[in-house]
Amino acid sequence: MSTILKWAGNKTAIMPKLKKHLPAGQRLVEPFAGSCAVMMATDYPHYLVADVNPDLINLYCVINALPNSFIADARYMFDSQNNEGDYYKLRDEFNAEPEPYRAALLFLYLNRHGYRGLCRYNKKGIFNVPYGNYKKPYFPESEIRAFAEKAKRTTFLCASYEETLNVLQDGDVIYCDPPYDGTFADYHTDGFNEADQRQLVSILSQKAKDGYAVVASNSYSQLTRELYFNFGNFACYTVAAKRSMGVAAGDAKSAIELIAVLRPSVAYLDELPWFGFDPAAPVERKAGDGVQA
Q1: In this predicted model, what pLDDT tens digit does every residue of 233-243 receive, in sequence order?
Q2: φ, ψ dihedrals at 251, nearest 5°
Q3: Measured distance CA(162)–CA(159) in Å, rounded
Q4: Which of 40, 69, 224, 243 could form a disulfide with 218 if both were Cys (CB 3.0 to 4.6 A apart)?
């Protein structure tokens, strides 16, 4: 199943490999919601989906509450307003902060009609992605309906990753997919810098000590290898992912991504079944950076 939104770092293509590292649990907690590709490709009893971007969470809440009305109104916009003039008028309307339902419609429209599906704001919080000039942008009706069904067992929260990781419950599984080191990170006015990367790993390490299963994704860089493998003592794996954002139109390239897994403290291991590997097995470290393919 593809996702409602185009999104930088969308996990749909690598889900078969990522799912091998996600343990069973009562609830999957995602502090970086993004496109919700992981939520849509898994089957946990419950989900806590959070993001610091209020426009993103508002979209998901509106679809959860009014899926049929949303589909009808969004389809009208796709059918009647696919041109450059309307795009910039609607972008201006979006930046004027309309009421939540209208804002959700505009956010989807801008995502599918804007350049390469970017979600970008300037320091003043103004959405500034230019027109994408697509002949017929795809209208994701089936994806919206599937999402609305899964949303019935999901709690949506507009909050920072620190706030989200402070409301964990017994049996939760944590999956973090933060803005990647060395790549586009302006999906929110505050951005996401090296200090944030370090703070996140520190918090995740503590959550594993508290007994929570932790899985994280990031770019494969010197910083992430240092943080997740050396400092955080995560078991690290690599996966090749197709990347279309940030490359020339018509091109695509593969990028190596990191999947980092931190097992919960020993007292909890018997309670958390794991898929794809033995949590009691020693970490297999290669010469060099210690990361497994």
Answers
A1: 899 999 988 76
A2: -100, 165
A3: 8
A4: 224
pLDDT, residue 243, reads 64
β-bridge pairing 253-262 and 235-243: antiparallel
- Provide the sign of the torsion angle of the four alpha carbons 268, 178, 87, 131, taken in this order: negative
Q: Where are the domains of the chain?
A: 1-266
Angle subtended at Cα 124 by Cα 61 and Cα 74, rounded to the nearest 5 degrees: 35
CA–CA distance, 128 with 69 (Å, rounded to integer): 27
pLDDT band of residue 190 (cuts 50, 70, 90) is low
Angle formed by the axes of helices 67-80 and 54-65, nearest 10°: 120
Q: Per-residue pLDDT for 287 more than 60?
A: no
